[in-house]
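Predict both folds.
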Amino acid sequence: LIQPACPYCGSLALLHNGHLVTNIRYLTANASLPVIIRLAKQRVKCRDCERWSMAQSELVNKYCSISNASKLKVLSALTEDRSMTSIARENNVSINPVQRVLGNCSHRFIDSYEYLPAHLAFDEFKGVDRQLHFICLDGDNHQVVQILRTRYKKTLLKYFGRFSPQARANVKTVTMDLNFYYQ
């Protein structure tokens, strides 16, 4: 990669100072034959503002050695019912990048305690370690509102107690069995 101009001041007066070679893990069709791209990033110093910089690529984020395409493949695999270990093995990465990808998209799942749907549907299901978990759906559009690790009354009261009284007052109907949604 070649740095065309200074990213700080836009100057074209650059002093080239070698390359940094990084090994980038890329998508592969066969997990037993990993694809590794050797990317040489040009290091430069701006003669005008005296700041150092390095060429960047859209193939990979700054300070990262796993390609963005591989991260998207990991993210799509996380939507399936599979272990993180199998996802990591398939994409030739360790479990830590898989956890980081999941953590980077977890901001979308932050609870808002200001709104509850008018119609709620509750049920329990067997989950991790064959324990029963609690699931709550919007009764109108079948979107998941929340999944709790336990189904005990104390946990449910604690979760629904976080909602404002106005949000709880909007709930009109409660359905106790979700089997009719999945038949």
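Second protein follows, with its predicted structure tokens after the sequence.
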Amino acid sequence: MLLNGALLVRSAVQAQSVALRCVSALVVMGALFMYAVSWYRDRSLMRVAVPRSPHAAVMLTVISTVLLACFAAVITIESR
């Protein structure tokens, strides 16, 4: 996901599109957020014998960000 965000950033710079810059920022932030959650979860699993499930709000945020980024990318590609 981070690689896709980097490619979107490159496309946004070349196209000079504000909307695409916003979408690429959301994708990069979503990738970093998912990395942080997975790092925290990995640390938690190492400390506790019984694994805990991720919070529903975290999962909803990640899924919403990914879907929004995909939707915006499709719209941007179609508008070219």
